[in-house]
Amino acid sequence: MCGIAGLVGRPGERVDEALLAAMTDTLRHRGPDASGLLLRENVGLGHRRLAVIDLAREADQPLANEDGTVQVILNGELYNFQSLRAELEACGHRFKTDHSDTEVLAHGWEEWGPALVPRLRGMFAFVLADFGRRKLFLARDRFGKKPFYYRTGRERFAFASEIKALARLPELSRELDLAALGEYMVYGNTAGDHSIYREIRRLPAAHTLTLDLDGSPEEARVERYWRFEPRPEEALEEGPFLEELEAVLSEAVRLRLIADVPLGAFLSGGIDSSLVVALMAKHASGPVKTFAIGFAEAEWDESAHARAVAEHLGTEHHCEIVTPDALSALPELVATYDEPFADPSAIPTYYLSRMTRRHVTVALSGDGGDELFFGYDRYRASARLAQLSKLATPLGRAVAGAASRLFPPCSYLRRALSRGSLEGFDLYHHALGFAPDYLALLGPEVRSALGDSRQQKAAADFFRVPGLPFLDRCRDADLENYLTDHVLVKVDRASMRFSLEVRCPLLDHEVAELAARAPGRLQMRAGEQKVLLRRLAYRYVPQRLIDRPKMGFGVPISRWLRRELAPSLEAVLGDERHPAWRYLDRKVAGRYFEVHLSRRGDCQYPLWRLLFFARWAEARGLSG
Known about the structure:
The strands form three sheets. Strands 2-3-1-9-8-10 form a six-stranded antiparallel sheet. Helix 2 (81-90) crosses helix 3 (101-112), helix 6 (238-255) packs antiparallel against helix 20 and helix 12 (377-391) crosses helix 18 (470-480). It is 42% helix and 15% strand. It contains 27 helices and 17 strands.
């Protein structure tokens, strides 16, 4: 895993070496082992290396083809690089390194051009500078495990793994994208191809970007090369499917054990992480190192479940308890995430990553299992409401909607009654966290800028495949949005803050394409969720350890907002000149805080989003 940065100036201009070095050094946490710069003509490539495969200095980046006309930098890992290398050597390509996965990209581009990208099995964000064809080519992996930001402008084109590197650009405006800020306050994160800053874009997952080195830095072509395609109409027999799933997932895990550094795994004790660890143990020559986080509050603590699975699988297990004192890390989280990011589970993810890095350099995780195999409680709840909405009369739905407004903002009954009056996409949209009440927090400019753009994109993803059943629409939309822009952002930033590489076998695209054949009606039935993955986990872990209520990776943020975090919120609300109130409605926020403190409603989501944004605005020096 690494950090990448780069600049492309106008034809005939030289790149500012000091600026490129500063951008690259900003990403030292992503790659503490080595640094490399390439400056040629109007192109500059910067790389910070976390050495995981081929630790020799010859594998430091940028790496090139035989004559140096193609230069490449990579953030990520290519798990099938050995088979690709053998194929390329058979075509006559000569390699400089012993077994670098990055060098495969330079030769693969020579041989296949853009058709190289669909051949790759892994997680990646890479840049190729082809000085012969006069092209700059960027690509991001299928699910967006690795981040990629860029800025276009008349002065130059710039890109980086994280926004903090682009913030080094002297010409960059710090003006916020008000629509993105509105999305953050309503949904908890920014999404799609834009960031919190108006001038900084995000290359979407499964996309490439091509730039003409002899053209204008403002002219970039973005194209999609892959998409998850659900196939629920195909006949599927459970027995043969499980055999195929076990084989493909086992191979995905085996490939992710290729490393020249110590490996381990996150283990919550849930189905996904337990199965991943079990398959690791199957391939490993010794005990697998596993890592878990627990909480002092028993209702949030999964550590006992993780310990029980670890004992059954014979792992070398480590656990750390997160207490409210951990909230002192909030300034560090603000710095780590670059953009406002309001998932409270970023707190334990941060501490889990810090603990894990003390022991290993690479950790496998169970991320992706809930999305691919229908693991979220909200899927089942939304499906039930969808059925109820068909039975309700128009008058009943209207009464429910009107009654919802009698309850305090953010209260469960208010949200439940309003959802009871909804159908189809609206149910999914609310299940994602959208609540009309949250719009009241936005100032007039932000509310106007937000409009319904995020809702329209989510609806487009939800209805993308004609005739798809409700549950399958939920999965399809989640894979396109929630997974990429929320779950994977959380894990990447927290882990790379400590130079820890996290690999996700369940998000191997061959596993995903197999899961596409298993519709929701087979994976959620008779009160059971994630049925097929659960059946597979029974082969390795006792059923009594698997069949327990899902807890997720939550934190007691609602309680902390009434106790340990209350003074911080009070300070923000009491400061009428705070920069947050340039964009948000202070009176509405105060009302939500009052409702939350009095326990008349649970407003943890808008209040946590407010507090994180307030600290982020302070750290970025925004004016009130």
